[in-house]
Structure formats: structure tokens, C-alpha cells
Write a structure and sequence with these properties.
The protein has nine helices and eleven strands. By secondary structure, it is of the alpha+beta class. Helix 1 runs parallel beside helix 2 and helix 2 runs antiparallel to helix 3. The mean pLDDT is 96. Bound molecules: cytidine-5'-monophosphate (C5P). The site of cytidine-5'-monophosphate has 11 residues, from strand 2 and helix 5.
């Protein structure tokens, strides 16, 4: 379907930041007939981010340039988002996308999905489009299950394939003030993790419901409810992830969980000094470790030049 609209471009260049997420919970409820899985997951945006620069061109193309060379192509979700908008608007407006990648790729942190959502929101504002929230949600859902979350970000319960997003109260436990993210040096293919998940790892959504209720009441969720239904299977199939989890705990992390389908693990800390000590110890062991925190980004917060 096309939503032919006038595009108004008052500036040539548009910068936008695309933030990563962690999954505080991930209940897999069961397999659907469309080969996806029914989920309930509580996600939180964190301050680790990619930077995207969009430049108007007069060549009726989408050009994708990424600091990670293997992502400099039309398969990149950011490029697919721009193609989708141009197609929906029947537009010939060219755009060059430069993507400064900082979020680890295929890591369970939603980097590609966040880039796609950031491009949708940036084009909406930069080209002064009249896309309704439903139009944006449809486009986001067609790009990937995590993309709808990033249209608003912050803290939210996501259900269905991930596209039913319910924002939660802006509360974040002090015990999680600082977050260490450890990215083991392997890739974990999301589709394979879901495909091989036994039904015994399915849950009824109770963990996500309990954590949502606790946070909405400004209470601290019980550690048992910080449950990721993919974690048991990922730890079993990928010994490097299990080893990294053990090393994080041994170095003093009070709690360690998998984000999404991994392989990134996150560990919350109340105190910066302790988080730093654990980070330094793990970096000395050769691990890639980021220090981050929960944030509530301004949706569509773009910088036009
Ligand atoms: O939607 P997205 O392309 O990000 O999903 C990647 C893969 O993860 C899907 O192809 C599917 O195998 C799996 N998936 C799933 N159920 C979901 C989300 C993702 O089975 N709700």
C-alpha cells in the first residue's frame, strides 16, 4: 500500500542515535502457526548506542555505509527501513545512511532493530511525514519483532511476536543502577535458538507479568522472575556463554542473565565502583565488556543540520 505524501526537506543532514536494549525477562509462551513464537518480555533501553547520519541525495537511491564493513549493504535493517518508507510514500528521494556501529552485532541487544526504528522515526521528522502511529507500527513490525519496542523505548512489556508494546512506569531498581554487558566472542543465531527450544522451556508469561507489576508499583522484582526462557538452552549449546557467565559470577557479579537470544550477558550493580572492578577483571581476562545504564530516550530525538 502506498501513502503518497509530499516530502519537505528543510535541511540536508539528519543525525539520530539508536540505543540498545536488554531483556529483563523473556517468557516464550509457545510456537505459533507462522513459525514465530508467542512472547512476553520486559525490555529496557540502555545508553549503549549507534549513531546514524542521514544525508539527502538526488540519485533516487538508498546508500548504506557502515563502520562494520559486512553491514554496508541493502540487507542492513537501517537500509531496509529507508527503502520501506520510500516505497510506502512512492518517493524518489535519495538518502545516504552512514552508520557508526557501537552496539555489538547479533548479540541479543537489539542493535539492528534499534537502527531500523531510528531511521523510521528520523525520516518521519526530517521529511515531515504524516505517518500515523499505526502506519509506523506496521512498518516496524514488518522489519522485525523487536523494532516496535524501539519506536518508544524506555521500559515496556512486549507481547505477541513482540509488537504489542505496553509502556511501564518509569521506575528502575537502585540495585540495577549500573549494568555490565559481556559479549562473548561468538555469534548466536536467533532463529536457530528459537527453532531448537524444547516445549519444556515454555512458560505462561508469569515472570514478565510479575516483573511488570513489581516495576509498575515501584517495587523491586524478585530475582527468580528475571527469567529468560532461552537462557538454559543457550548455556547448554554454547559453552563459551556458560563459561562467561561463570567468570562474571566469580568476579563478583551478584546476578547474571542472558539478554534476548544472546550471547550477551548482563549483570546489574548498585555501585559504580564494584561494577568497574568486575569490568576491569573481566577485561583483563580478554572479555569484551561494556558499562551501561537504563535510559528513557526521547523518541525521534533527531539533530538536523
Ligand atoms: O523478527 P525477527 O526477524 O527479529 O526474528 C528473528 C528470528 O527469531 C525469526 O526468524 C524467528 O525464527 C525467531 N523469532 C521467533 N519468535 C519471535 C521473534 C523471533 O520465533 N517472537
Amino acid at each position: 500500500m502506498s501513502y503518497a505524501q509530499q516530502i519537505h526537506i528543510s535541511s540536508c543532514v539528519c543525525f539520530v542515535q539508536a540505543y540498545a536494549k536488554i531483556n529483563l525477562t523473556l517468557d516464550v509462551l509457545g510456537r505459533r502457526t507462522d513459525s514465530y513464537h508467542e512472547l512476553a518480555t520486559v525490555m529496557q533501553t540502555i545508553d549503549l548506542h549507534d549513531t546514524i547520519c542521514l544525508t539527502a541525495t538526488d540519485d533516487n537511491r538508498v546508500q548504506m555505509i557502515c563502520t562494520t564493513p559486512q553491514l554496508s549493504n541493502d540487507e542492513n535493517l537501517a537500509a531496509r527501513a529507508a527503502h520501506l518508507v520510500r516505497q510506502r510514500l512512492a518517493s524518489t528521494q535519495g538518502v545516504k545512511i552512514e552508520l557508526y556501529k557501537r552496539i555489538p552485532v547479533a548479540a541479543g541487544l537489539g542493535g539492528g532493530s534499534s537502527d531500523a526504528a531510528a531511521v523510521l522515526l528520523a525520516l518521519q521528522q526530517w521529511w515531515q511525514l504524516q505517518l500515523s502511529p499505526a502506519d509506523l507500527l506496521n512498518m516496524a513490525t514488518s522489519l522485525g519483532s523487536d523494532v516496535p519496542f524501539f519506536l518508544t523505548g524506555g521500559l515496556a512489556l512486549c507481547e505477541g511476536r513482540g509488537e504489542r508494546v505496553t509502556p511501564l512506569a518509569r521506575y528502575w531498581p537502585l540495585s540495577m543502577r549500573w549494568l555490565l554487558l559481556l559479549k562473548p566472542a561468538i555469534s548466536v543465531p536467533t532463529a536457530a535458538v528459537f527453532r531448537s527450544l524444547p516445549a519444556s522451556d515454555y512458560t505462561d508469561g508469569m515472570h514478565s507479568r510479575a516483573v511488570s507489576s513489581a516495576l509498575n508499583a515501584a517495587g523491586n522484582p524478585h530475582a527468580d522472575n528475571l527469567h529468560n526462557g532461552l537462557e538454559r538452552s543457550v548455556l547448554e549449546r554454547y559453552p563459551q556463554v556458560a563459561q562467561a557467565r561463570g567468570d562474571l559470577l566469580k568476579a563478583g557479579a551478584p546476578l547474571v542473565r542472558l539478554s534476548g537470544s544472546g550471547p550477551t550477558l548482563f549483570a546489574p550493580f548498585a555501585e559504580l565502583a564494584r561494577a568497574l572492578r568486575v569490568q576491569q577483571e573481566l577485561q583483563a581476562q580478554g572479555y569484551e565488556v561494556y558499562l551501561s545504564r537504563a535510559i528513557h530516550p526521547q523518541p525521534g530525538n533527531v539533530c538536523l543540520f
